[in-house]
Amino acid sequence: MISGSIGPTLIGKQIVLGVTGSIAAYKAVALLRTLLREGAIVHVVMTQSATKFVTPLTFEVLSGHPISTEMFEAHQEMKHLSLPEQADAIVIAPATANCLARAALGLCDDLLSTMLLTAQCPLIVAPAMDGGMWDHPSVREHIGTLRSRGTIVVNPEIGSLASGRIGQGRLAGEGTILEAIQAALAPRRDWQGHRILVSAGPTQEPIDPVRFISNRSSGKMGYAIAEAAQARGAQVVLVTGPTALPTPKGIEVVSVVTAEEMTKALSARLAWSTTVIMAAAVADFRPSHPAMQKIKKQGRAAGQTIDLERTTDILASLSAQRTTQLIVGFAAETSDLIAHAKEKLTAKGLDLIVANDVTTEGAGFGSDQNAATLIDRQGAMTVLPLMPKRALADAILNRAQELLRTRQSGQAPKPVAGGR
Ligand code: PMT
Question: What is the DSSP letter of 202?
């Protein structure tokens, strides 16, 4: 029987507790005991400098698991991959200014910082630092970067510091850190009551019964958005072009092939929806006269041409018909990312555009990760680094929520049917 807090349960949750080199490292021992009392399974990862303050043995005995400090420990699996894969949350307490800077910049020169680049679970950092470092512009900037990526920062408290000075820098209390962990692990239902129409994948435009014009979209980005929105409480309809992805559970999926079918499927559901997110890579052109029979090569000269005609610009057409829906589009660019994305934002009458440079290594079509800049109608930009598509999906949903809230509070103009 666990006598613990009244917050959401941590029973059975896998937590990686990162401890970095601060005098407050001893407080991580008490935090570890609290997490264990709450029923969590805790693996402790220490930086080398943390081991100067508290011995790994202390954490090892209490947690019941060996302590990881090194990237490459003999006869061990790749911990920088296996620990974050299994983790429900990573908590760094105390987090030094050095650790925050490395996390913000994506440096990975030890086990803890490398894990942060592979982790997909929530990250909670509880900074602790002395001597006014908390107010230094560089620390503020790194904290801002981490927050913009969804990291939960448990601010340090004001009080007497190890140096004897009074200031903000004391590690937040165990109870406060525990509440932040519980809140991060409680299912987020901030899209409950919303109906989201998501498009994904490519379209295929027939040339003849066996050939078509298409593109390299795998559908991963759109499916990640649909799954994230559903996990956050939204009712989701996913209109998808042909992909090899499994059907996501609990989501109504409408399968289409051509741009015209996608136009019809989305238009028919626009009135139902409160938000539209268009991640599909829709063909801009289709063969004007697809052949009814397979085109034979015999008797045809080289240099054959196919006449093309424009497909419907689905986003522009949805935006012209909308009433109150928030409309989010994507821009897949290979040059002048921001300028081209801004043009599309205006031309298609969008509230938000997700600009992705599809030439970025490891991002864009087909990959599991993506990097994007979110741009709204007021020109506000959020630059997001390379991250798993699911994490980007959550970041897009976060920004869309902010726009909806601003709109509800009457600070932003409501959309006008027929564009603006
Ligand atoms: O599917 P993945 O492999 O995961 O790859 C993800 C992705 C690269 C496809 C995705 O991140 C992305 O960028 N999707 C948009 C691709 C695209 O068609 O971009 P575009 O810049 O050509 O179009 C701009 C916007 O207009 C898009 O939201 C598009 O859906 C929409 N559009 C385009 C053509 C058209 N006829 N009608 C449209 O509504």
Answer: B
